[in-house]
Automatic annotation (TrEMBL):
InterPro entries: Ala_racemase_N, PLP-binding_barrel, PyrdxlP_homeostasis. Keywords: Pyridoxal phosphate. Its cofactor is pyridoxal 5'-phosphate. Gene3D superfamilies: Alanine racemase. It holds the Pfam family Ala_racemase_N. The modification N6-(pyridoxal phosphate)lysine is found at residue 25. Belongs to the pyridoxal phosphate-binding protein YggS/PROSC family. The lineage of its organism: Bacteria, Pseudomonadati, Bacteroidota, Bacteroidia, Bacteroidales. One of its GO terms (molecular function) is pyridoxal phosphate binding. It comes from Dysgonomonas alginatilytica. This is Pyridoxal phosphate homeostasis protein.
Amino acid sequence: MSISANLDAVRSLLPEGVKLVAVSKFHPKEALEKAYDAGQRVFGESRVQELSSKQEVLPEDIEWHLIGHLQTNKIKSVVPYIHTIQSIDSWKVLSEIDKYASKVDRRVNCLLEIYIAKEDTKYGLTFEECRYLLANENWKALKNIQIAGVMGMATNTDDESQIRQEFRSLKTFFEELKQQYFKGDSCFCEISMGMSHDYKIAIEEGSTIIRVGTSIFGEREY
Ligand SMILES: *Cc1c(COP(=O)(O)O)cnc(C)c1O
């Protein structure tokens, strides 16, 4: 199937209000152009260098999401154009983004990456670490970031009930944070969960952003 047919297939399953991030990491810019020509405007990349080199040559109206682990020394280069950084896993990263965003007078959407999987290869904050980060209310003084929600990755397994349970735990945690810290803040609204093999479950469990690569662009070449 072509990229545009793959996109149509994913889109046909998207309820209103759920955003599709086309995850284009490891695919050449030509693949992104095909998706762009098929109307896709939101793309996700996991490595800063690859993201920057694509951003430089692709249309300006693309909404870029960074979904991979971010080192603090790379923050400066993405802040001028990034729409959302989905991989916030420390106070340090959050405060550095704010620092550079204030220099270029932007506000960057940030999602708190939460560790929900039962495997130890994934980045992210545990529920406890995240509660701890927010309980110290220093983040409220950061004017150039918007904490817009949470992101998580389920365990890479065929066990649907486990995946469902992990997504459900993220949704419940989102509600807890909303209640405790973001009650009047309509911008705290995103639950980014669901990839190629589990986005249908994620949507059933309340996802507002799915991040789909393989089902759109095919297998990645590493
Ligand atoms: C690569 C990646 C995806 C997309 O994975 P697919 O299985 O190809 O859909 C989604 N989220 C994150 C954080 C990723 O690194």
